[in-house]
Each structure stands twice: as C-alpha cells, then as structure tokens.
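For consistency, the fold was encoded as tokens, which produced the following:
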Amino acid sequence: MFKRLLGFALAFGMAATAPPAFAASCGMRDALVEQLTKKYSETLTVGGLQKVNGAQSVMEIWSSSETGTYTVLLTHANGTSCIIAAGTDFFQAVPKVTVEGTSS
C-alpha cells in the first residue's frame, strides 16, 4: 500500500513541476528579444505566421554569425513569447545554382 501511495505521489509531483519549468522559457517578447540581442548578439533571421490551435502566432528564428547560436521564438497575439528551441552551430543553407547547359 505504501509503495503505491509513494508511486502516485512521485508521478503526480513530477507532473505538477513540469509546467513551471516550461513557463520559465516564456515571457514578454520585448524582454526576450533584448536578452537575445544583448547576451547572444542574435538578430532576426527569418519568420512567418503560424496557425496554432486556431489562433495565429508569429514564429521567428533569431541567430548570430558571431556566436553561432540560434533561438526559435513563438509569439502569441497577447505579446507573450516562448522559446521553442535554441542551439549552437547555426548555418544558413545556400541554394544550389545550376548553370544552364550543364547537368547536375
């Protein structure tokens, strides 16, 4: 009986702690952008509209050629932004150019 009770307590306790950890990566867009520019030297690289659960959001990728870091930011209509992904070794893909009259 005690083992089951302990198991349930651990499972529900872990589930209850997950949302605050995720919420730590969210905040007002202006504050997050300030951190990205000052701390990581990142600038807006690309972005677009995304439909999430019937609502429009703005998805942006911020990156830095200096530091090689990148951050994927999702901003909701209320001005709250969440960091969806972040990493290092950012690169931009270069489209392959074919010269007319040659085969690839």
